[in-house]
Write a structure and sequence with these properties.
Layout lengths: L7 E3 L16 E8 L7 H10 L3 H14 L27 E2 L2 E6 L3 E7 L3 E10 L2 E10 L2 H27 L2
Antiparallel strand pairs: 1-2, 2-7, 3-4, 4-5, 5-6, 6-7
Length: 171
């Protein structure tokens, strides 16, 4: 395992497509780090990164799924994304990729989303200049979405950099 990379909180990258989706957003954050696989496409990097999701993160997702079902939010599953036997070129817009669905697929950026009656979450992995930016944009639809994000937002800012550091160090 290599040394943990430095993960930096930053603004959404201006050249990214997700930066154009922040109008009316209730939550947005972005983290950047050196690209451990600069030759890989954005989707390849996203799949590689999420394949290294630490066990503690999957445990938190399981806990989240158990708790939120009592208040009407959907069970998302785990962050693991790669389906055995599915080739990279077989991914299409709308495909389920772990807990998200694929909405945009470009060599330099992949955007995934989950949408329900409470909120819309969009996640981007953007690559440029030897760096990766992982960005999240959330639009809350109802009071339940606002309550959910009042808890998840601060936790998200703590766990995402830690998860990225652990996962990217394994690449």
């Amino acid at each position: 395992m290599s040394a943990r990379p430095t993960i930096s909180a930053c603004a959404l990258p201006a050249a990214s497509r997700i930066a154009q989706r922040t109008a009316g957003a209730d939550f947005a954050d972005s983290y950047s780090f050196a690209d451990p696989q600069p030759e890989a496409s954005a989707l390849q990097s996203y799949l590689a990164l999420t394949a290294q999701t630490p066990a503690w993160m999957n445990a938190l997702m399981s806990l989240r799924n158990q708790v939120v079902r009592w208040v009407g939010l959907k069970h998302l599953g785990q962050l693991k994304t790669r389906r055995p036997g599915k080739a990279l070129q077989d991914y299409r817009l709308g495909d389920r990729v772990g807990i998200f669905s694929l909405s945009d697929l470009h060599a330099d950026e992949v955007i995934l989303y989950d949408d329900d009656k409470h909120l819309r979450v969009q996640v981007s992995l953007y690559k440029a200049e030897g760096r990766i930016w992982l960005s999240t944009v959330v639009h809350e639809h109802q009071i339940l979405g606002r309550v959910y994000m009042s808890v998840v937002g601060p936790v998200h800012k703590l766990i995402v950099p830690l998860m990225l550091a652990q996962a990217s160090a394994k690449l």
